[in-house]
User: Fold this.
Amino acid sequence: MSSPARRTVFLVVLIVILALVFVASLAFGSRWLGPGALWHAMTANNGSDADVIVRSLRAPRTIVAVLIGLCLGVAGALMQGHTRNALAEPGIFGVSAGAAFAVVLGLQTGVVESVGATVWVALAGALIATYGVQRLASRGSGATPVGLALTGAAVAALLGAMTSAVVLLDSTTLDSYRFWAVGSVAGRGLDVAGQVLPFAVIGLVLAAINARDLDLLALGDDVAAGLGLSIPRARLIGLGAIGLLTAAGVAACGPIGFLGLLSGHVARQLFGSRNTWLIPGAGLVGASAMVLADLVGRLIGGAGEVQAGVVLGIVGAPLFVLVVRRRAVVL
Assistant:
């Protein structure tokens, strides 16, 4: 089978997997719903318990999980491409830390009093942090992969320390913040998805534009420049996409660690280093993983639920370490 045909097969398989976990998320939970109940809820809603469960609870949170997983998966692939490090992930740019610090300040000042307010405050913090990292890393010789990574790590550490200082000095803020910081789609409805959707769409468009640039950058900056690529422009577009996509994900459901890392690596094993295939593949992997983590958290949580961010950390990190030990991690 030729390489394009093989990649097409993998892409179709990932789409099928996403469809299956989406349906499973609608069917399973504290109460199992059979195919008949699901079909009735989606086509002939009459207000029954099953209809309310599907339409008001499970479907909205599953749609949010798909959107957030797609954003963080694509952001992870972009981050790994721009830093030329297959173990990089979006949080290294300080985006999550910027969102967290903004939310903490919003909680302390009373600006954040609802999920909708949290989304906008987190988005503002994430985008400001992204812009700050880009400006700092661009000083001197420009935003190189190493410069972006080091600057992002430094900004993330600084903002993380400031966030800790605020929440440790204010117990009320800490109580409110810890529910957002764990990373969850519980209680997130279509209103939240609608608020972050414009940022996600713009980020995905920028990612699609940046895919070919990343293929050229992989040849080396000198070769890419010789082929006519504007390296500062390519870096700026990529950083903008990473910032918007990660900001949308973090704003909607809190910091979700590991997902971008996992998605980019798995997609690279399936599609190779061609970013025109790798980036959409990473998005599909991220969406499926996010929905599955949310579903597993509901199934193992008993009367409550384990948050998706916790599930991804507990289950995903050991599996990823195992994969890295067994296979060479290369770009």
